[in-house]
Design brief:
86% of the residues lie in helices and 0% in strands. The protein has a domain of 79 residues. The chain starts with a helix and ends with a helix. By secondary structure, the chain is mainly α. The chain has five helices and no strands. It is found in: Cell membrane. Belongs to the fluoride channel Fluc/FEX (TC 1.A.43) family. Fluoride-specific ion channel. Important for reducing fluoride concentration in the cell, thus reducing its toxicity. It catalyses: fluoride(in) = fluoride(out).
Length: 128
Amino acid sequence: MNQYLAFLMVGLGGGLGAMGRHFSALIINRFWHQSFPLATFSINIAGSFLIGILTAWLLPKLGNDTLLKYLLITGFCGGYTTFSTFSIENLQLLQEGKIFTLILYVSSSIILGITFALLGLFVGRAIS
């Protein structure tokens, strides 16, 4: 596998995923005006569903080292939402019976994610 081509596929898929995320959010927010962040929620759930389909359907047929994996799973799903990767990794931990690791990963990701976002806000405000 040409690693440069794989790198380009991730970039192309990521760009398309990011544009898909933005377009999806524009459409959802056009019709949803409540406080619940439906656009982000819907995008994350749809991305999780898509990565599940692609993982179960594509990888068994083509293998783990295929350009379509880099384009669609790593690139598109990663650009559309990183929550999709988080979801499939946690599902794999559950299937492997690694419950402690799963709980640690979920809880620390949420707690540290929010904490570091808050820290980033403070740092950003301090340097501006």
